[in-house]
User: Fold these one by one.
Assistant:
Number 1:
Amino acid sequence: MALQIYINGEFYDKADAKISVYDHGLLYGDGVFEGIRSYGGKVFRLAEHLNRLWESAKAIWLEIPISREEMTKAIQDTLAVNNITDGYIRVVVTRGVGSLGLDPNRCSDPQVIVIADRISLYPEELYQKGLKIVTVSVMRNHAAALSPRIKSLNYLNNILAKIEGLQAGCIEALMLNHKGEVAECTGDNIFLIRKGRLLTPPQEAGILEGITRDVVMDLAREIGVAVLEVPLTKHDIYIADECFLTGSAAEVVPVVTVDCRTIGDGAPGPITRELMSRFHALTRS
Ligand code: PXG
């Protein structure tokens, strides 16, 4: 059976799952989304993802046309109908069909889409050996223009950074903020270990407050590693003992090279490996 996609309460074959070309989600990137994982049939941190989705929607003045309970059921039904227990869930809410003008008041019917699919993970080798990343010239959106806390359909900022990273031969790219501080990667948050402490940019640096980021900070505290949310520079990364990224898709992935500087001794460090292992245990338990 073809993959079943949920749109506004109905299921469609993947090939027939379509929305209007007049949808402002397409015309203007006007909408919000979430990327969620399920492990062993259980949706990981669902409440947190729904909170963030509703907060993103509120920030763009978009009313999600169903309740959280209905959204939860839509997600569970989409997993069930596709027989997916370990997978990736994409929830999208668009502004809906409007006219060829920006005015969201002329849009009716926000579209609620739920896709559940198998995940395309980074190759296993990267988890063993670590990732190589570069800092790119594309600056993270200024929070006063478009807050990085909003997970909107307007991902061009990140896509432009991704292109620059890919052209440099890297599958993830590091973005700085307007002050030149470290913000985050295109779809992942960044962490450093220095002298036994875990460091990561604060929300004020202009980042998406990742749900995996929160989980990993809790895991670090559990093993007695101090966690500091502090402004970081490229220099802090270059002299770090360890570095890793977090995201729903990537989970916890070690970084061993940044801008051609070897981090630590060039292999995933002990605290990174411990956090990877605890994250794995938490999600696969
Ligand atoms: N920063 C940004 C900019 C993100 O888009 C994260 C951090 C990590 O957040 P979570 O809550 O997942 O820990 C994200 C989310 C993908 C994909 O398919 C990943 C994201 C967004 C869109 C697509 O890899 N990451």
Number 2:
Amino acid sequence: MNKKEIYEELYEQTKALIKNENDIIANMANIAAIIHERFHFWWTGFYRVVNNELILGPFQGPIACTRIPYGKGVCGTSWKNASSIIVEDVHQFPGHIACSSASNSEIVVPMFKNNEVVAVLDVDSEKFATFDETDKEWLERIIGLMENSLH
Ligand code: SME
């Protein structure tokens, strides 16, 4: 299966997973697990916007930084820009926050409610340049499913 086919399957599985559940933390937990398990990324998880910072949410992988300020790191920048960011080499990203020295590339996708960013999905890889437009497109779609379940 190529990456697109895996994502198509993940998308359908996510739909089924969240259909009867509207608790955002429960859904974040299962979505982090399903993405992580399928692709064996280094770290897959969520940071939630709480007041004026990002706070660690459900994740799979090693322990991570608990708080990220607005505009800082890849996650804080994605929140500030209200758009996804693909980073081929995290060591070249100004202000990158290294929760783990094993991470070499990263993608961050924001989640919206009423046009405001309420959380970000962060996925880290031990390899360089793991993420491309296919990951961006499908992770945005998967996050979009969750956005539709937010009241
Ligand atoms: N690298 C992220 C921080 C989160 S951890 O990688 C899990 C960043 O620069 O925002």
